[in-house]
Design a protein that fits this description.
heterodimer, A: alpha+beta, 4-stranded mixed β-sheet, two-stranded antiparallel sheet, 9 helices, 6 strands, 8% strand, elongated, B: mainly alpha
């Protein structure tokens, strides 16, 4: 049979080398650098005759059914684009400085070109270098990514390990003015603490003038003030000493949104609980005692969970691990729920609502529950995505239900 | 606000056909629209709503011709107005289920504001029903809704006449301020009657330690028009520039 040297240039690179022992096409792995010939498109190669021919001969010669061992194509036969890449990688020994260019993700404008960047440099260091040329974009505000529409690169990522060529092209997006999480938390929790006390002490211009600086005659009102204040003092102390934040900052507008929510609701609840016309709970001391017990248990539970989560993560790190129950009985809720801190938080507020028998408190609990459910579901989903062996019994926020 | 929110927020409320089929918006993003059953249902829904608002329009014209004056025309179209405007609540369901690609929040906001005006203001405060401001917003809504629902119908059937698209993105310039004025004047007219009757209000002391002053609530609603109206209005103007200029380009290349 004649040796057919048919270069299948219309189809993906698979050089047909003739019919002898080389009748199997040589497969080259496409990495995207090979270009289709004559500016045409790659097409899946339809080869009905070849397939028929092979099938016919396979049945006659079973030895052909075994795939021949892969052949190393000598470099001289490589496509030109492959040879170029080889030259590039060989010319740049590891350890020499890399180049980084930073483009705007929306306009593709060249913002910065960094020469002689250490290949071991992290994204954090590159952000610092970028700030030198554009001081208005401090590192917390920068989002650098490999693809304009892709995910942001993390600060810990090393330049060398990223899938980039000798000159790394990073796309920049401005995240807007940032504010630290700690600042936001302290502000949004200090507000309700202070505001509630304004209403509790019946500061002038809130209720009628004859009530200024008077005190309620109901015990439950004093108890409610203690519980509410304790709750927010606990939150402030946890922000300062317990929580370990993954992110340093959040967008500035969040502080306005969050403070409006917390301060607004605190004022609304405090107005009714401390009102001179406040009506104590229908079932009296029994109801108050039960609700107080629920509140205290849930506060302890919430604190235990925060401590357990803190212990999962060493200081200064951002590791993520599956939380498990510890010796503390309050943490046993981890068996049933991914985010028991939210469960206990909702429990606390339900306890507070029953204790004060105040509809605005119930509404606040409902809104908080809705928001925390959204967060819990998100957290649960990311746990499931990140950990293969995540306990299947756990639900996001309410055992067995939600 | 309710008038323009209707046009502003729900650009895609007629279904994915509005985007992928009609060729507007460049067609660069191919959105998979609702399935054939959902499209059929949406076409029926939009046709019914167009017909309903046409009934209201015809009712208004007939009542005007019969009475000879434009005062107190509300009474002649009260029932179909309530029925078809409340029927718009289904649009929230459409977004929630996913057969319409609009945002649930935006659609709820817009539909609820309309329903609020119909039931919580006009229906509840009977003295306000003979006001002229009611006619102002009813006319604005009627014209807007007829155009909007026919726009969606045609989009779903992939045969959108340019006139309807032009009308939808142009008439709002007049109809939106007209509708907003009508609404604000109606709420303002309702205020003294609300105060007098203590309508929908609860005061202390009560078992649940809660109070609600509907009068103050209505005033807050009126104030909220100030930030919201310009945003929606300029959003629609921006949309108009985008949609109508794009069609111009298409026409040039034909």
């Amino acid at each position: 049979m004649r040796r057919k040297e048919r270069s299948t240039s219309r189809f993906a690179p698979a050089t047909f080398q003739g019919l002898a022992s080389n009748m199997w096409p040589v497969v080259t792995i496409l990495d995207g650098t090979a270009t289709p010939p004559r500016g045409g498109e790659w097409r899946a190669a339809p080869r009905p005759h070849f397939d028929w021919w092979v099938a016919k001969h396979l049945s006659a010669r079973p030895c052909l059914a075994r795939a021949p061992p892969p052949r190393c194509v000598p470099q001289a036969d490589w496509p030109a684009s492959w040879r170029e890449r080889l030259v590039l990688t060989q010319d740049q020994p590891r350890g020499a400085g890399s180049k980084v260019e930073i483009l705007d993700a929306k306009t593709r404008e060249k913002l910065c070109f960094l020469d002689k960047v250490e290949p071991h440099a992290t994204i954090a260091e590159i952000k610092n270098l970028f700030t030198k040329t554009h001081p208005q974009w401090y590192p917390a505000r920068q989002s650098l990514r490999l693809d304009p529409k892709g995910k942001s690169l993390k600060d810990e990522d090393v330049l060398q390990k990223l899938p980039v060529g000798t000159t790394a092209t990073l796309y920049f997006r401005d995240l807007g003015a940032q504010i630290s999480w700690v600042t936001v938390f302290l502000t949004e929790y200090a507000g309700p603490l202070f505001i509630y006390l304004l209403f509790y002490f019946r500061v002038p211009f809130i209720y009628g003038h004859k009530y200024d600086f008077t005190s309620s005659r109901h015990t439950v009102v004093h108890l409610a003030c203690i519980c509410h204040s304790f709750h927010y003092v606990k939150r402030l102390l946890e922000t300062l000493f317990v929580h370990r934040f993954s992110h340093g900052t959040m967008p500035l507008r969040n502080i306005f949104k969050n403070c409006t929510y917390y301060w607004g609701f605190a004022a609304w609840m405090a107005y009714y609980i401390n009102h001179p016309l406040y009506t104590p709970p229908t079932y009296g001391a029994q109801q108050v005692k039960l609700a107080l017990a629920i509140f205290v248990i849930c506060q302890l539970g919430n604190f235990s969970i925060h401590m357990a989560l803190r212990d999962l993560r060493p200081a200064g790190s951002k590791t993520r691990k599956i939380p498990y129950p510890t010796k503390n009985p309050f943490t046993w809720l981890f068996l049933l729920v991914s985010c028991p801190n939210y469960t206990y938080e909702v429990g606390s507020w339900i306890g507070f609502a029953i204790m004060t028998q105040c509809l605005p408190v119930a509404l606040f609990s409902l809104v908080g529950f809705t928001q925390m459910t959204i967060w819990a579901k998100g957290k649960h989903r990311s746990y499931l995505k990140e950990f293969r062996d995540y306990p299947p019994l756990r639900m996001p926020i309410i055992p067995f239900l939600l | 606000m309710a008038a323009a929110a209707a046009t502003a927020a729900t650009k895609g409320n007629g279904g994915g056909g509005a985007r992928a089929g009609a060729g507007e918006g460049g067609g660069a993003r191919k959105k998979k629209g609702p399935g054939p059953l959902a499209t059929a249902y949406l076409v029926i829904y939009n046709v019914v709503m167009t017909a309903g608002w046409l009934v209201i329009a015809v009712g208004l014209v007939r009542a005007y011709l019969a009475k000879g004056s434009y005062h107190s025309l509300y009474y002649s179209i009260e029932k179909p107005l309530k029925f078809f405007q409340t029927g718009a609540l289904l649009e929230i369901l459409h977004c929630a289920v996913g057969i319409v690609p609009s945002s649930v929040v935006l659609t709820s906001f817009q539909v609820m504001s309309r329903v609020f005006l119909i039931w919580a203001v006009t229906h509840s405060v009977k003295e306000v029903q003979s006001e002229d401001s009611v006619l102002l917003f009813v006319i604005a809504w009627t014209i807007t809704e007829i155009i909007r629902y026919s726009f969606y119908t045609f989009s779903l059937l992939n045969h959108l006449p340019y006139l309807i698209k032009w009308a939808r993105y142009t008439l709002f310039i007049v109809l939106y301020p007209m509708g907003v004025s009508g609404e604000l004047l109606t709420i303002y007219a309702a205020l003294p009657f609300v105060r007098q009757a203590g309508l929908y209000s609860i005061s202390l002391p009560n078992k649940y330690n809660f109070s609600f002053d509907y009068y103050a609530f209505l005033i807050l609603i009126m104030i909220s028009y100030i930030p919201i109206f310009p945003q929606l209005y300029f959003h629609m103007i921006h949309q108009r520039r985008k949609v109508l200029s794009h069609t111009e380009e298409h026409k040039k290349f034909e």
